[in-house]
Amino acid sequence: MSAMEIIKEGLLGGLTSVYSIALIVFPLMVFMEIAKDIGALDWLAKSSKPITRFMKISDNSAFPLAIGLVFGLAFGAGVIIQSAKEGNLDKRSLLLVALFLACCHAVFEDTLLFVAVGANGWFLLAIRTVTAFALTAIVSKRIKIKPDKGTGTLSDK
To answer: Residue 136: inside a domain, yes or no?
Structure first.
């Protein structure tokens, strides 16, 4: 296989992957905007306060966190990036959501894949969830990035 064929195959494969991800991420972005307009994101933020408070992240982190848990990192990243660009996620929450999702993402899909090869799904789900909550709680207590009072901006103090 020549270098040109390898490059062509790599580019085609990459573009196909980006297209596949876009087919899911774009509708998620539209869904997020609609949910924001009808107040569903506010409801989600309020109903998930115990979880976001425990993890010491902003209430606005609930939707990106839920998307990452259900759809995984590739698709959740689009929602997380959009939320961060819109100013809905501060640096601290962004870091903690990413950390949580690194341990516990695509819980349905991944769990079912491992069950298919013989793993105990409940045990796997429990370990991933406990690890994600524990690691996020530990890091959130040690992290030095704190929101500035009144301005909505961050300092590294």
So the answer is: yes
Measured CA to CA in angstroms, residue 87 lies from 74, 149, 153 at distances of 21, 16, 9
Tell me if 155 is assigned to some domain.
no
Burial degree of 23 (CB within 10 A; 0-12, 13-18, 19+): exposed
Q: How confident is the prediction along the chain (157 residues), in pLDDT tens digits per residue?
A: 789 999 999 999 999 988 887 887 788 778 878 887 898 877 877 888 888 888 888 888 888 888 888 888 877 888 888 888 888 888 899 999 999 999 988 888 888 888 888 999 999 999 999 999 999 989 998 887 765 443 344 444 4
Domain count, the chain: 1
